[in-house]
Amino acid sequence: MAFTLKSELIISLVLILGAWAWHAMSVRPLHDPTVAEQHEQWMANYGRTYNDLQEKAKRQRFLQRTCSSLKISTSPGNRTFQLGLNQFSDLTNEEFQSKPATSFSHQNLTGDVPDNIDWVKKGVVNAIKDQGNCGSCWAFSVVAAVEGIVGITNGTPPVLSEQQLIDCDTTNYGCSGGYPDNAFKYIVQNQGIASEDSYPYEGVDGTCDATKAAEHAAQIKGFTDVPSGEDELMKAVAQQPVSVIISSGCQEFQSYSGGVFNSECGQQLDHAVVVVGYGTSEEGTDFWKIRNSWGEQWGERGYMRIQRGRGSSEGICRVASKASYPTA
Predict the structure, then answer these.
(1) How far apart are CA 64 and CA 135, in angstroms?
(2) In whole angstroms, how far apart are CA 289 and each of 2, 138, 277, 319?
């Protein structure tokens, strides 16, 4: 979507917030001591604090509803994934979807592609990060993709700065969302991007530090948009980690805790992640492996597997509708 936006821009000026799906669930009276105890334990697990008792009571009710919803939602059926509590469980789905988000000429890759690939196991994907309360998933997606191609090219992936993109890329919207392609273009025009050590993550909108931004730890020559469709995405991911924009606003995505995700999340593209591989589960289900930016406590230690080859050509959660990757 980067350079030829026009209709795309109108279709979804969806600023990739980092989509956070938040559960609304229903249940036991607040005076039930087990509810309070469960909330206290959840707060301790996720480091949550509240401004006052009124806010705490409200969030306790939301967590209670989430717990009830999970009990209803975990019936087997055709589901191939698991749900569970995580850092978003005291939010309603409406709150989750109201957070800031994102939107977006792929070369014709030819030749056979492998049956599976995992760039994490190949050592070119860095540790999972957490964007926190900043709608900066677009920056995390772009940085991970750049780290990946530099790692493939040079042998070791650098740890690069998302904060530089938030502060310095004026074509995007910082913690209010952004477009991966615009961020790739910024890195090209800036002739590189700084390391995370040089320009550390703050998780808030800041003023661009030109001195830090000039301390380049990695460079790219450009970027390429991937045509829509899982076959095209597979060709690209066989070469390197790929930035994608997906639909993530459903409750199931919010509470995903493992397995191969096979539930649709609507049509709105609202969250940027990185596809770091694909393969087939032990049960025989083909999947995409994505790297999220919500910390290791979400999903499969920060990763998610989404069913591949099911439904429309764009895939589950529209994973193959808006993809791009940097060129080095």
Answers:
(1) 26
(2) 24, 18, 5, 11
Question: What does the domain layout of the chain look like in residue ranges?
Answer: 7-21+96-327, 33-90
pLDDT digits (tens, 9 = 90+) for 185-218: 999 999 999 999 999 999 999 999 999 999 999 9
Tell me the per-residue pLDDT of 272-323, one tens digit each, with 9 for 90 and over.
999 999 999 999 999 999 999 999 999 999 999 999 998 788 999 999 999 9
288-to-141, 263, 281, 284 alpha-carbon distances in Å: 15, 14, 10, 13
Catalytic annotation present for 137:
yes
Q: What totals of helices (H) and strands (E) does the chain contain, helices first?
A: 10, 13
Specify the higher pLDDT residue, 70 or 289.
289
Which single residue is written with the structure tokens 């001591």? 33
- CB distance 103 to 245 below 8 Å: yes
Annotated catalytic residue, options 23, 39, 271, 317: 271
Helix residue spans in the chain (DSSP H): 7-11, 33-46, 53-73, 93-98, 137-154, 162-168, 180-189, 210-213, 230-237, 251-254
Q: Which of 67, 137, 265, 317 is catalytic?
A: 137
CB 188 within 8 A of CB 222: yes
Distance CA 182, CA 111 (A): 30
Closest C-alpha to 293, from 132, 145, 167, 91: 132
**SS3 of 289, please?**
strand
Active site residue 292: yes
Asked: is 7-21+96-327 a CATH 3.30.70.240 domain? The reply is: no
- Prediction pTM value: 0.71
pLDDT band at residue 38 using 50, 70 and 90 as cut-offs:
confident
The 10 Å Cβ neighbour count of residue 33 is: 7
Q: Pick the closest to residue 226 from 290, 321, 139 (CA basis).
A: 321
Q: What percent of the chain has pLDDT over 70?
A: 74
